[in-house]
Amino acid sequence: MSSSAENDALVFWFTGLSGSGKTTIATSVADHIRKMGKQAKIFDGDDVRNILHRHLGFTPEDITENNRLIAHICVQHQKKADCILVPVISPFEKTRKEARTIIGGRFVEVYVKASLDEVIRRDVKGLYEKAINGRIENFIGISGNVPYEEPRDPDIVLDTEKLTVKACASALMTYVQKDWKRRG
Ligand SMILES: Nc1ncnc2c1ncn2[C@@H]1O[C@H](COP(=O)(O)OP(=O)(O)O)[C@@H](O)[C@H]1O
Ligand SMILES: [Mg+2]
User: Ligand 1 center to residue 8 CA distance, Å?
Assistant: First the structure.
């Protein structure tokens, strides 16, 4: 069941490995939107976990539940914003499909693409080193029980090994502006 109406906020659902660039790009896009005098909201997977979903861990079941709850939070805010940005790893195809169903027609799946080799090289938070050394369990992309499933049919792909942050953000701004123009 699709819930969002034509005038509801566009929801960019950023999926990609930890360190692929989701938060960086979402923050830049939110800045652009706010500079245009419009409302942008960011629901970052890490923040939502720390504030609202502290009871959830990183087992596949908990990841699925976290993603589902975030999709419902988006729906609750869709009438109060122009654009909602959701940087959340969301490693499972099934869960992303479910988010699309919960949010409806205004859902845009953005695959923030970077290879495992590249994110290990970046190791923004030093977590890959710990995960590889077995000091973190259930680490997405590293631990066998939580693989990262590449999106099969994303709406937008941003390859952060080839494009700059600026180029990624401006690709999304082009999308936003076209959408707003179309809606008048
Ligand atoms: N095109 C790009 N888009 C986004 N981040 C990039 C890009 N190229 C390099 N980076 C770097 O990759 C890292 C991404 O970190 P972050 O945004 O926290 O990732 P995530 O939120 O996906 O875990 C940052 O250090 C950022 O500077
Ligand atoms: Mg992030």
Answer: 28
